[in-house]
Amino acid sequence: MDLNELMDTINGQMFGIWFLIGAALVFWMQAGFAMVEAGFTRAKNTGNIIMKNLMDFCIGTVMFILIGFGLLLGEDVVGLIGKPGFDIFTSYKNFDWSNFLFNLVFCATTATIVSGAMAERTKFLSYCVYSAVISGFIYPIEAHWVWGGGFLADMGFHDFAGSACIHMVGGISALIGAKILGPRIGKFKKRKDGTIKVNAFPGHNLTIGALGVFILWLGWYGFNGAAATSVEELGSIFVTTTIAPAIATVVCMIFTWIKYGHPDVSMCLNASLAGLVAITASCDVTDALGSIIIGAVAGVLVVFGVWLLDYKLHIDDPVGAVAVHMMNGIWGTIAVGLFATSSAPAYARGFGDGSAFGANQICGEGLFYGGGFKLLGTQLLGILCIGGWTVITITITFLVIKAIFGLRVSEEEEIVGLDSCEHGLDSAYAGFLTSGDIGALTSNLNSEDAKVSPDEAIPVQVLEGKSGSVASDVKLSKVSIVCKQAKFEELKAALNEIGVMGITVTQVLGCGVQKGNARYYRGAEIDMVLLPKIKVEVIVSKVPVKDVVKAAKKALYTGSIGDGKIFVYDVENVIKVRTGEEGFDALQGDDDLTA
Hints:
alpha+beta; Ammonium transporter fold; 2 domains; two-stranded antiparallel sheet; 20 helices; 10 strands; elongated
């Protein structure tokens, strides 16, 4: 073996190892999808989201072994389908394990895209059935057309890493599934004039969602780059996979800043993913300028997509899966026909030198680089074929599942949360006090184990007051003051000056008639914003109520909305537990200094 042959062998081994590392990175993207979806939805459904993402991969593996791999990579039958086979069992030693694993993780990615759009209201059983169908049947057949030697590959259709085959297919499935399923309870409300009000449901953990986006971005380097056959090609793919999402995020930040008055955090996170989706088809044949334009369009398109679904189509997509994957999957596939820069070979997905098909796919130049309309026409035809296949098959799948199992949980189950109803979890956040935990604590306190009554545990001895007065002879009043947190110290000092020493302070959330001022989440108005407040409660008898009210008003007044409210109540009686004193005397300290 001469030096050149040795270098070729080493180079082949290195890229074989990178190919498997890329597969591992794509698998790691499952964690990113799970975190994005969980963070962008409500806490009561977190366990359900995690379980669905876990089962996407596990069910997908079973279906890919049984039928999907053969339909995708089996011997081509008239350019439409691969011939099913069981080489994984019958030809163990000679089986192409690398290609199997790599295409398996891509198959799971297609299925998991739908999870977020159908979140918080889908039956878990029905979701498992859908996941099996797309992994075993829908995805492998259309992917065969492009990457398995099918008719689109012969025509010159180019989708290097899956803008159409994976993201557009997953996004279309998400759109149809969310439409058939219907919106979450309270998402859309019909006004008296017949118009539809869109309500926002903010995600419960933006930090988890952001971490998921960064995990996905990291995994995308394997997603796009694993099939590269040279260091130069790999470097170029890494650059385009960095430029497009970065530009998309910046454009989205500026656009939402202008449109909504502030840079929208969750929308910018979606924009990063949108840029990654859009560059996926052309990452190997696009230059820096093309990547910038592709990313810029993606940054605006994702905002438009969220707005379109909410305000025009009235389809509830909690995480923006349709805007990110379907719309930018279509845009990214079209962009190949516009920005492809050369005729450099672009090998079918996951097949190294392309020898598995006997010939390499060649990508022509795009419209803006002198290639005319030929490649653009081919890309549009591919979108129609793949999109049409997906629409027909996924619609039938969802309608059959709906007829047999039912697609949506009951109204009561949706309100309580899928963690509890579908998986028997009080909460996915054990140790944190949530509504489910409060219910459990209440039931424990009311159980038979609480054998000691409050009267037995805290004996009360009623004594005659020092002044000879009784509760009914003394006017007792409760003054409840709700104010801004920043004003608490001034209020406390003012009450102290007039002789009020005993107060109860609580941190609360609330809003007035302005509903906490208008705020927007992902372009939709939040129905009611609960602002952090301080509630100060005072029971007075010696100190006149009018003095308390006057002091509070003086301390809190700024003339602006949100200064607070003062509520005055009559109190029937007060009992001091330690001494048993009642009424006026119960409010006095040993030195008679309190109110």
